[in-house]
Amino acid sequence: MIYHQIDKGSTSQQITIRIVDSTDGTPETGVVFNTSGIDLWYRRHGAAKTSITEATLSALTDAFSSGGILHIGDGYYRLDIPDAALASGVDRVTVGGTVTGMIVIGAQIDLTNPVTVSSGAVLSYLRDGAHGGTAAVITAERIVVASTTSNEPGLKITGNGTAAGTLSTGGATGPGIDAVGGGTSGAGMRTRAAAGNSIGLDAVGAGTQPGLKATGGATGHGFHALGGATSGDGAVIAGQTSGHGLTATGVGTTKHGVNATGGATTSAGISATGGATSGDGIIAAAATSGHGLVATGVGTTKHGVSATGGSTTSHGISATGGGVGHGILATSGSGSTGDGIRATAASTNGNGLNALGVGTGMGVQGTGGATGHGINGIGGATSGSGLRGVGTAGNSSGVAAVGQGSAAGLQATGGATGAGIRGTGGATSGAGLVAAAAAGNSDGATFTPAGTGLGMNYTNTVAGRIKKNTAFTNFMIKMELTDGSPGTGLTVTVQRAIDGGAFAALAVTTVTEISAGWYKFNLAAADVNGDSIAIKATATGAKQLDLLILTQVAG
What we know:
By secondary structure, the chain is an all-beta fold. Among the domains are: about 1-110, Immunoglobulin-like, CATH 2.60.40; about 460-550, Immunoglobulin-like, CATH 2.60.40. Helix content is about 0%, strand content about 20%. The chain contains no helices and 18 strands. Strands 1, 2, 3, 4, 5, 6, 7, 8, 9 and 10 form a ten-stranded mixed sheet that branches. A five-stranded mixed sheet has the order 11-18-17-13-14, with no helix packed on it. The model is unreliable at about 125-135 (pLDDT under 50).
């Protein structure tokens, strides 16, 4: 039975009935006004049944047509009840009928006497007949309040002092207030604060039950809060003592406790501001194996988390690991270029990532995969370093690289023309690169040539191609003037010293200018008949050029 409540004497009213299969009870969806065996009726309380003349309807939006019937969905049908059924004189009307091979689940219509209050009048119920008396108790099976004026509320209730305008107590399992929204965009319940700082809705839980419990529909929200036109928040939730302002629990694997979507431009899905002293804007704590916070970016520029530090020393994100757990565990995407963490500096000299170790712990510990690098540093387009390690005060190392087994502590491969490692000495006596051997017979540095390349090639040192006691033709040097510009048009004198001996002229003293400060000369076998050959080139108005040649054994 489907229940309806309609004012006595109403006209052009629609009710709902349901029709199901007589064998298995499944909804019947194809009944029309002339379906075989259809016979609908109504019975006014205390009277005989009256047959309804069924009529056709082409659409659910059609105007009222007495006896009109049309399927709504899932076996429910619109039925335009004849006006005579709703006439005054009785309090109840029953609607039923038959259809061949089907069961009609009828309806009961309670006919009510409408209460009409003229504009501006007040309807009052007083128990004792005088103001200030105890409020009257109205007992009714059902009360329906419908507004007849556009955009005016059907029921307006105002509290007195600290008492509520409406105090609704739920049943054992039923809600105190069950508000159903309109067919399109009308809210089921709308609470609006009056002037001043009053609260539109104040919901207080009892025991372990929440003050407000909102369950979303199939695709609609359980709770939809819309902020004001300027700075008013859609929802402000404040915890008391040790209670949480908001506890959101996800369900299953894809239903989030909170799903917040930012606006189209710069508005945040969630904007969390920490307290004035040490209160956190957001604390996300994982339970068992679930994550405290999962943030997924969209497209190429929309970040899962966009965190901006304060103007002085506050951090955009401060993450502290617990026990052996990580403060942040970042896993790259499944694609070939998705980074687990990508840190980009915003200001001119700001750091994209600043990692500070504590005690013997590392600021950054990068562990390579089976063939991937633990840390892969790519330099900028011009002169920015892919990785720069700067030691702090004292004698700390800028970079300390320790190999494992036969693998290198640091493996640097040069580019097409760039160096794999470039070490620049300090302003006074600091070495650009110091390679110190550990205990035993290990090498401080091992340089292995490949093809025609050198095992080691750094400024003012030549090694690899010059063979001991073997002439070398067209040895080239570059001369610079005292201001650092290329030294052209110079008369260059070259001398050599062998294995720590005194400087002496070359066997062939001719030095020929090429261009742009470059000069060439020949080294005779006698000039390189040693293990280490020092070359000194001088010219008036130019810087002295010093070279060290480490020869190879001929053969």
